[in-house]
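As agreed, record minuted below.
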Amino acid sequence: MDNDLEQLKYPIGRYSKPDAATPQLIADWKSAIQALPSWLDACIENLDESHYNIPYREGGWTIRQVIHHIADSHMNAYIRLKLALTEDNPVIKPYNESAWAALPDTNLTPVNVSVTMLHALHRRMLILLDNMQPTDWERTYYHPEHKRNFPIWEMVALYAWHGRHHTEHIRRLKFKLDL
């Protein structure tokens, strides 16, 4: 993949799994999860309906699809978190992100509905994360597509990155549109 396309697809770089969780990393990840809904509020400020239909890059999702994808993805993360906290290494259900992004609710639901949902969802997720015991961070779920166990700390790291990753897609497009 050429460097320009790589930069458009991964404006903050590809996700890189940390080797382990430290208290400082956990605090940083939780901070990013807490901030995401407010970052999205700022990103969609001054956008009108036509802007939501612009892809963040050629061949990429529209801003509308990205925002609804973040909500879909983070809802799945929240469910995976709860499963990992209440079951012994549960097998999670993967989903087809592209198929979900093509469903009618993505095109017909105002983006502020998903942003509002993320405010509530992340508040609940943080209540769980803030009240976990140190050993809970090592609890796992099994991801059948990746054929391996994911500890909660790794999932939290991934979704902290995921929010920043997609927020940057929107922020860069907004800058390009001079808004």
